[in-house]
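Hi X.,

You mentioned you wanted examples for the new student's onboarding notes, showing what a folding record looks like when two proteins sit in one file. Here is a clean example. The first protein comes first, with its sequence line followed by its structure tokens.
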Amino acid sequence: MAALDGPRWGPKAGGAPKLLVLLLHGYGADGNDLIDLAPHWAQAVPEALFVSPHAPQPCEGGPYGRQWFSLADRRPAPLLAGAQAARPLLDELIAREAAAAGLPESAVVLMGFSQGAMMALFTGLRRKAAPAGIMAYSGRLIGEELLPDEIAGRPEVLLVHGEVDEVVPAASSRAAESALKAAGVPVEALYCPRLAHGIDDAGLSAGALFLQRAAARLGPGA
């Protein structure tokens, strides 16, 4: 399967990046869906490079868009198998993009929406070189029962979810919050009233602050 790639933006400040932010889109979208977040968040982290890869598979649910894994069978075992199959491609992307940017893999933030959030959590928590942070919007924690044995790092995590999400219920992020705290992962959670399956201004602001803190932990100039 071909290596992941997609649109990129920044750094706003010019020059070499000090932070790499990977934006992982949801089911049926593609990398163009989230790259528009880059100019907004670049106000907070002007030395960040944003990359929004297209997921590896054509979307089974329509003529356009991509998917990280199939949703034809949404039982836990097929979802876990799908995330496990997609993870090596995301791991390869992280390593390749960090090397190209001249950054350690610990200077990468994984941000995902919906199915992309599932991949960000699944992959980020299992990497020996833990990312600088994980931002999971409208997602869920796949393979929760395996996490105590498979967790390799405890990066800071931001969970954001709309309270009236009818696609991925907010209860999914509440369950993830509990499981992550039980695993010793530092978690910040924001549940947005009246928000359905999307990202609102409160979520964007929380993401900007999270990215600022991640950059600050990396040291001066990040």
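Then the second protein repeats the pattern, sequence line and then tokens:
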Amino acid sequence: MVQKAKILLVDDRPENLLALEAILSALDQTLVRASSGEEALKALLTDDFAVILLDVQMPGMDGFETAAHIKRRERTRDIPIIFLTAINHGPHHTFRGYAAGAVDYISKPFDPWVLRAKVSVFVELYMKNCQLREQAALLRLQLEGGGKTPVGDKGEPAGLLAELSARLAAVEEQAEALSKQLDDESADAAAVATAAHLERKLTGLRRALDALEPGAGPGAASVPTQN
């Protein structure tokens, strides 16, 4: 079973949260509500999120301050933030949103189809990264075992290597399709950069896996760092 991604919705108005849930329910992911910046930061302490939809105008800790706290934490600094605002103070206001670490800045009322499409891109990138981490963990176990883990009848790791290679190939194929989709749709630069980073990590993992194949010779195959 594929675990669903979590999407954090932050807005002090219940009707806005309800509207976001209605728009994003078609993505079939886990939607988590937060009615304040403080509540959002508390949720981020325990759960991992694919993307955050953050209202700018909130009493107390506003969206800009909340984003600043998110970006200061090592655990959450790489989570994409999409700012939502009911007002538009011009380029300076928008620039402040990007400076706070947002990947996008959308003014209300927004097009539900556009918002859903933007969120779906970051959800898909998140899922690909989760798959990549799983493959890297399996490969790391194989490397730490010195390639001597009994798998087949003769105690050879060929079965595990074949399974890892097949799983990695599936992720590579999906990542390639996603990159082509981003190019075709002229997507946000942040999404394109994230996809490119994912492909680089996939390439490193593939090289490490190839180094374990019989006949590859002794070498220090290393698993790529997961950043």
